[in-house]
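Notebook entry, structure prediction.
Reason for the run: the old model in the group folder had no record of what sequence produced it. Starting over properly, with the input documented here first.
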Amino acid sequence: MDDTTGNSTGDGRAVFSTAVVSAFRERLTAPITVGSDTDLLAELRALEEVKNAISARQARITVHLHEQQTSRDVPRGIDAAETARLVGSQVALARRCSPHLGSRLLGLARAVVEEMPHTLAALSCGVISEWDATTLCRETACLTKEDRAVVDAGVADQLGVVSHRRLEATAREHAYRADPATITARRARAETQRRVTLRPAPDCMTQLTALLPVKDGVACYAALTTAVTESRADPGDDRSQGQVMADTLTERVTGRSRADGVDIQVNLLMPVDTLTGDTPAHLPGYGPIPADLARQLVDHPDTGKGKDTRKGSGTGTSKAVRVQVRRLFTHPGTGDLIGMESRARTYPGLLAHLIRLRDQTCRTPYCNGKIRHIDHIRSVATGGTTTERDGQGLCERCNYLKEHPDYTVTGDAGETTTSTGGLVATSHPPCPPGLPPPTHSYSERTLIDFIWVEGIYREAS
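New structure, fully documented this time:
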């Protein structure tokens, strides 16, 4: 790269700095030059190699950051795990990703830079991707440093040559040869990590995923496949194979048939535009849903009319749909949930529930973790109060990280500011359905609280 930014060493070589990187990034916005397919494909290949090489440099920078932070934390008596948690969050802020992913990237960087020279060289040359390097680290995670180096050397001739899946299989094979006992023990430990997760999918669908031991996963899939075969014997069943398997899974897990209703708790943020118009609603654990779907959940037109198709039920009709509606009031025009407060140092049930519904996910920038802790933004020791305005929902990891002296969080419920390592990021609660974001004005918020308290007092009188 020629030195177009004025940054250079005494011998004329370009200095690789933030300015140089920014200048290169700006060049990437230039119009695509009309050329032959060969030229365009060559540029595409070169860009891919640069992207991978950048990942290698990011890994080296991450390791350097960790080493510098460790040198500062050790004299202060800060635990190594706390140091790693802080650096993981700093990496996350810099790369605009979740803190959990930042910690994984830190682990990946240390493994590649410190223990896998062949993988680092291939990544630096751009012939493998960061995902390839991640897979190699995952397949050798349980090995000693020496055995990991053996596997790294064993796959060196395939880096950038074979497909990702073949590279993964080769690494797994070399890892087993290096230490069969450890790989066997790892498999046993993996079975203890079996779990079920739920993630949103497009078009108001969800992805229900189960991580199971291979024998259990194969057995479940075989049972669902058998249900497909049985459905084919019914000429009136026109469902596809995927539909039959999905319906069978739901019926066997929940114990109900497709004709049964479901028990629903709907948390509505007032006003009631969702029930009367097109304002989307928010379903906890999923996210925004269209107004028409929310109305279907609240008011099933077929409730009590369908027949129960479960064998041996003996009821003849479906279960009634039980709906619990919880209304959460917002101040007109501001989007603020009406405040609650407590004299306790910890957040009590209803106030904690209010904050969970307000924040929806962890309030740390870029973190989408599930809220595990409700904590003060400003600690009680420094004058914080147990109120809605001084409370925030955090995942467990982010709440513990607040104790590190090089990590600060300031602000209130309307806007919090996270600062660490020269990086600054802000966080806001999601906009309530049909309303603007909560106000950031302290004076306006104080007036809202006053009007709310006065309104309660007058109503009680």
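Summary: The chain has a mean pLDDT of 79.
The old model has been moved to the deprecated folder.
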